[in-house]
Amino acid sequence: MADILIAVILGVVEGITEWLPISSTGHMILVEEFLHMSQSEEFMEMFRVVIQLGAILAVVVLYFHKLNPFSRRKTAKQKRLTINLWMKIIVSCIPAGVIGILFDDLLDKYLYNYVVVALMLIIYGIFFILIEKRNAHTRPRITKLSELPYSTGLYIGLFQVLALVPGTSRSGATILGGLLLGTSRAVAAEFTFYLAIPVMFGASALKLFKFGFGYTGMEVAILLVGCLVAFFVSVFAIKFLMSYIKKHDFKPFGYYRIVLGVLVLLYFIVWG
Predict the structure, then answer these.
(1) Cβ atoms of residues 258 and 124 within 8 Å
(2) What is the pLDDT of residues 183-231, one digit of tens each?
């Protein structure tokens, strides 16, 4: 039962940190430092990725109508715009998909450590603060997803590649990319949610394929609990973020990342 409780806690952490630009990996490393499952490292490596499926399903449920090109409630023009949106999402996901497949094992082997995670937390925290200060007196060029050109979507997809480095934060990297490229905070955040769907489904499938499908009953229970908790928490986290950015900027997340990065470094230096 202890492992199930840890799965619940990790599901809560995943559901919150996957969508806020504060790095789910950084928080997972901290939580797992104090809470250890009695499962193999191979299972835990797969669990950290597959638990994201629950978070992704929250996006699918919350934005199902907007993402569904076959909805009977949409006009012919709206259906074309939805198909066009999916094409932008697919194009934007190609860079991260290719790099992730080619270098998945190397990234896990050499970059999944507290030093890299802490440095990325701090560096991207500084970037958030600087970019928001730069944008304080400028108006975004792109305020609707329908206005987002393919080229800008592809460039945002290139920023998503940066998130393959642990501690960067997938949402953080793509939101930063969107802000740099002239999108509004709302467009950057919403497009980030959509990009997560094919990327995380693909990453989860890759991990499941590598791990195999010979699960014990406990392993199945851990995966299901983690995914379900991540789903419900993600629903609230996504709604919170979209409501928050209507009146606020991302600087507080930048300060939070810097503080967390420093704490991670200090913890492992002093007690590691």
Answers:
(1) no
(2) 999 999 999 999 999 988 887 777 777 777 778 888 889 999 999 999 9
